[in-house]
């Protein structure tokens, strides 16, 4: 438990950001870089940053540790969002295919919506059912099932599904119980065991452990291989699907799927790691026939992010990896690009609302309108928030507030972030 005095120090530290911000905004158009912020126990052993930017003038108004590297966690999804907007069309590339009369050859593009429990996507299924003979051309990816630096013990958790070229059902088993146990897809019913286990799935086998008393909805990743994907595809189509090693001669066409904004919005609002990873795989499908997260990342760094103040270390789409390193100034630069290139109404729809509790679906503060539209990013001892803040004067500002290596409860960090941003909202 942390003492009242320690909590006071936290308050002073973050309020220091606000005070310096407000004093500087009154005296100068550019806020000074200030090193001597209060850094006492317990914050003297942790790492914090705040950068505030005016997108109209593109001026950095305030920067504390803005050029330092931080582990971004799910703030990485902001970069994934920008990558999708730059590299993908308005509708998801659902499949690449070559049609020969009543025969269709097709391959995956990484589109995550096929039979997804949330999207209930039918475009691809309807298209495939229009042909009498289906040939799937698999293995058009260089991806490992997990990203570099992911935690191995998360293999049974909802936020860590495997990546794949032709995802189906979101690459998870969804189960819930009312009068009976339900399973989607039902293909795995034979693999369901009504017992308690430390993990919800065997590490190297699709055996699932759900005790009888669990009635809530659970999502458990399944292990993907070519044979399983083929079986699930045949089950959902109710028709035979064959595999073949290569396409016939001739150009490939691309099937348009659902609007990308519906994928972006769920990725950002739900912090959906699976969607984030598959967005980068889809993005690579516009650059090469071999799906590769690294190809998409390298292309973005070379062509659209080559003006960042410091070169990031960027390894995945979701931010699950602790290998990722970005600076707060880099995030404000990317947020500036989004501000410049995306309509503001659309942009603030893609970014979720946020308050001291975290991301919120419904705004409950009757005394004030929503004013923070931002993506959070957290795992143990890390909490970051980057996005846009509406001020009481009608100004829209960009900010990135990153906090790494703290030992206080993250709820305290969230509360102080909110207090800081609320003061900026009120005073600027």
From TrEMBL:
One term of GO molecular function: carboxypeptidase activity
Keyword Protease on entry: yes
Pfam families attached to this UniProt entry: Peptidase_S13
Source superkingdom: Bacteria
Keywords assigned by UniProt, alphabetized: Carboxypeptidase, Hydrolase, Protease
InterPro entries (alphabetical): Beta-lactam/transpept-like, Peptidase_S13
Stated family: Belongs to the peptidase S13 family.
Designated name of the protein: D-alanyl-D-alanine carboxypeptidase
Organism: Flagellimonas spongiicola
């Amino acid at each position: 438990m942390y003492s009242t005095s320690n909590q006071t120090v936290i308050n002073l530290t973050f309020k220091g950001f606000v005070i310096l911000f407000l004093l500087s905004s009154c005296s100068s158009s550019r806020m000074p870089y200030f090193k001597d912020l209060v850094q006492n126990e317990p914050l003297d052993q942790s790492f914090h940053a705040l950068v505030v930017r005016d997108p109209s003038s593109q001026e950095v108004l305030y920067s504390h540790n803005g050029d330092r590297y931080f582990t971004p966690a799910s703030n990485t999804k902001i970069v994934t969002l920008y990558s999708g907007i730059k590299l993908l069309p308005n509708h998801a590339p659902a499949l690449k295919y070559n049609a020969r009369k009543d025969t269709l050859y097709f391959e995956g593009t990484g589109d995550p919506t096929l039979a997804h429990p949330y999207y209930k996507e039918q475009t691809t299924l309807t298209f495939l059912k229009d042909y009498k003979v289906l040939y799937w051309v698999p293995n058009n990816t260089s991806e490992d099932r997990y990203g570099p630096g992911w935690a191995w013990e998360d293999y049974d958790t909802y936020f860590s599904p495997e990546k794949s070229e032709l995802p189906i059902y979101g690459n998870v088993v969804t189960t819930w119980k009312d009068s009976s146990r339900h399973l989607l897809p039902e293909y795995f019913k034979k693999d369901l065991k009504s017992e308690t286990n430390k993990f919800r799935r065997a590490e190297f086998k699709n055996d699932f452990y759900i005790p009888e008393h669990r009635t809530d909805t659970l999502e458990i990743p399944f292990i993907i291989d070519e044979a399983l994907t083929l079986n699930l595809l045949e089950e959902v189509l109710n028709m035979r699907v064959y595999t073949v090693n290569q396409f016939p001669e001739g150009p490939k066409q691309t099937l348009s799927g659902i609007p990308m904004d519906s994928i972006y919005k769920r990725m950002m609002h739900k912090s959906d790691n699976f969607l984030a990873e598959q967005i980068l795989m889809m993005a690579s499908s516009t650059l090469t026939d071999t799906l590769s997260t690294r190809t998409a990342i390298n292309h973005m760094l070379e062509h659209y992010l080559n003006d960042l103040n410091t070169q990031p270390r960027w390894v995945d789409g979701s931010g699950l990896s602790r290998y990722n390193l970005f600076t707060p100034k880099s995030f404000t630069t990317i947020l500036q690009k989004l501000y410049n290139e995306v309509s503001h109404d659309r942009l603030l729809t893609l970014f979720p609302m946020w308050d001291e509790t975290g991301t919120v679906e419904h705004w409950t503060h009757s005394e004030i309108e929503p004013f923070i539209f931002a993506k959070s990013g957290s795992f143990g001892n890390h909490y970051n928030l980057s996005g846009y803040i509406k001020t009481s004067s009608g100004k829209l500002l960009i900010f990135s507030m990153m906090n790494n290596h703290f030992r206080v409860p993250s709820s305290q960090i969230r509360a102080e972030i909110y207090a800081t941003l609320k003061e900026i909202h009120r005073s600027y």
